[in-house]
């Protein structure tokens, strides 16, 4: 075999041959929902329409974000107004207005932003739904005065004998207690069944923060309450609320056929026009958990050197992206193994790390490696978890990257097995690269092979070593 030896040292340029992989954003993915999650707000009503007023105002025709028409309920005998608190806040007040009966406001929640879809069935939303509300009732008599937040109802008339749905009740059976129940003959009809029964007694005149969660994947319901004291409401989606009772499974009215497209605020009362005969509502918010996903085109592994490269991530919500570097074509690790920095055998990966993304839809980068082998293909596995520590992705995403040649290579080697003959590159197995590091040919056999390449300088890497040849 003819051999050509070279004695000079030459610098090789880096190359960026890599594979970009991405995951689809599946809003309706069936991910488990525990702990603090990344949420998307689908509706918010802080009852601040007409805030320029300096006193109580009549009920506006539309309210909230997105704006939704609010209407007084059929047969309502009380009064509705926005009570002025200060220059930055108003609250909804429903008063008895010297009449015995019920008064309520309803609105069509079909106008909520996606992915909320009560009209298609609560289960169709696909991810954890959270309702937040502030509530205060002035009267301690449970029999004659009950304050209700209707989460979803099949009828715009909450008193209709065929109305079904779910609601939060204050003083349903015991004054000052909060419960979650389903109803099948109107909000306070003959068939109201506790999902989560009353437990803690709260002072009826105090301001309360309430949170309800429903997980469509498990049909789990949970109820949380906080006593905000006697001065004012605190935002119910901030701070800590205490769980009432335990998490309960209920799927009675969660299917598409139930069509719980109406929500609202309800007050049952005796006659009376004093301050003791009214209830306050504020800060009604509905949010849906958003599974963390990579933006199309991310994650990325590029800008390689001889022993490292750059990893890049962009996620739809604030998140932490974990990654591990493994030998190419090794068996894939699990999500948990990637997060732990391990390979598929639970051994420490060749390299690993994490990238914190403070904002969604923003690229963040980090250096990876540092002790990798030059001119070697690697698989990089990525997995993201939202910033709250929930919604860990179910499967890792793989990207392939190749490190470059070492900065300096000594081509003096008596055992190299490539040469040029009659304008062709003769090779006995190995990979061929051009001067910018792009692989242009690969010969797997050890038999003599002739390659027709354009004139230029090429680098051959094989089991025998690394060699530079020139085709004229």
Characterization of this structure:
The protein is an all-beta fold. It has 3 domains: 39-289, Jelly Rolls; 300-402, Sandwich (Immunoglobulin-like), CATH 2.60.40; 413-471, no CATH class. It contains 1 helix and 35 strands. Mean pLDDT is 80; it is low at 1-36 and 407-415.
Summed up:
With 472 residues, the protein is mostly beta strands. The chain has one helix spanning 335-340, and strands spanning 9-10, 39-45, 57-58, 62-63, 68-69, 71-72, 79-86, 89-95, 101-108, 129-137, 146-153, 165-170, 178-183, 192-196, 207-215, 220-229, 242-243, 248-249, 262-269, 278-289, 300-302, 308-313, 319-327, 351-357, 364-369, 377-386, 397-402, 409-410, 418-421, 424-427, 430-433, 439-443, 449-451, 456-462, 465-471. It contains 1 helix and 35 strands.
**Total strand count, please?**
35
Distance separating the two termini: 20 Å
The rough form would be described as: rod-shaped
Number of domains: 3
The appropriate CATH architecture of the largest domain is: Sandwich
Strand content: 35-45%
Mean pLDDT over the residues: 80
Radius of gyration: 33 Å
**Can you summarize the main beta sheet?**
10 strands, antiparallel
Q: Which secondary-structure class do the elements indicate?
A: mainly beta
* Low-pLDDT windows of residues: 1-36, 407-415
In which range does the helix fraction lie? under 10%
Number of helices: 1
CATH fold call of the largest domain: Jelly Rolls
**What is the CATH C-level name of the largest domain?**
Mainly Beta
């Amino acid at each position: 075999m003819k051999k050509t030896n070279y004695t000079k040292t030459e610098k090789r340029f880096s190359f960026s041959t890599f594979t970009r992989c991405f995951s689809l954003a599946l809003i309706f993915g069936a991910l488990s929902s525990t702990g603090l999650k990344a949420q998307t707000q689908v509706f918010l009503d802080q009852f601040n329409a007409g805030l320029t007023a300096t006193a109580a105002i009549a009920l506006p025709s539309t309210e909230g974000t997105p704006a939704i028409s609010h209407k007084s309920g059929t047969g309502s005998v009380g009064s509705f107004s926005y009570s002025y608190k200060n220059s930055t806040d108003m609250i909804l007040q429903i008063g008895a207005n010297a009449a015995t009966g019920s008064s309520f406001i309803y609105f069509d929640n079909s106008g909520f932003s996606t992915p909320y879809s009560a009209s298609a069935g609560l289960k169709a939303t696909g991810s954890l739904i959270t309702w937040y509300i502030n509530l205060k009732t002035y009267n301690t008599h449970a029999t004659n005065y009950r304050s209700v937040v209707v989460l979803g109802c099949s009828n715009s008339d909450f008193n209709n004998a065929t109305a079904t749905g779910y609601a939060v009740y204050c003083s349903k059976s015991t004054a000052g207690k909060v419960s979650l129940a389903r109803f099948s003959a109107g909000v306070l009809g003959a068939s109201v069944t506790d999902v989560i029964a009353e437990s803690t007694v709260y002072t009826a005149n105090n301001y309360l923060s309430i949170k309800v969660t429903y997980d469509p994947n498990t049909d789990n319901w949970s109820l949380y309450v906080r006593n905000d004291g006697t001065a004012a409401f605190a935002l119910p989606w901030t701070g800590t609320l205490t769980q009432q009772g335990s998490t309960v499974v209920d799927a009675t009215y969660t299917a598409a056929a139930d069509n719980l497209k109406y929500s609202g605020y309800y007050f049952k009362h005796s006659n009376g026009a004093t301050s003791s005969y009214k209830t306050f509502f504020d800060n009604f918010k509905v949010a849906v958990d958003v599974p963390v996903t990579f933006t199309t085109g991310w994650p990325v592994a590029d800008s390689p050197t001889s022993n490292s490269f750059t990893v890049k991530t962009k996620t739809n919500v604030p998140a932490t992206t974990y990654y591990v570097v493994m030998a190419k074509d090794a068996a894939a690790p699990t999500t948990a193994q990637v997060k732990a920095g391990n390979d598929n055998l639970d051994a420490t990966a060749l390299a690993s790390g994490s990238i914190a993304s403070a904002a969604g839809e923003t690229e963040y980068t980090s250096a990876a490696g540092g002790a990798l082998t030059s001119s070697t293909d690697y698989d990089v596995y990525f997995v993201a978890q939202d910033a709250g520590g929930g919604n860990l992705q179910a499967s890792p995403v793989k990207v392939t990257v190749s490190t470059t040649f070492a900065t300096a290579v000594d081509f003096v080697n008596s055992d190299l097995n490539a040469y040029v003959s009659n304008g062709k590159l003769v090779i006995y197995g190995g990979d061929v690269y051009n001067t910018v590091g792009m692989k242009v040919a690969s010969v797997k056999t050890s038999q003599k092979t002739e390659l027709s390449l354009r004139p230029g300088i090429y680098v051959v890497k094989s089991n025998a070593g690394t060699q530079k040849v020139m085709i004229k």
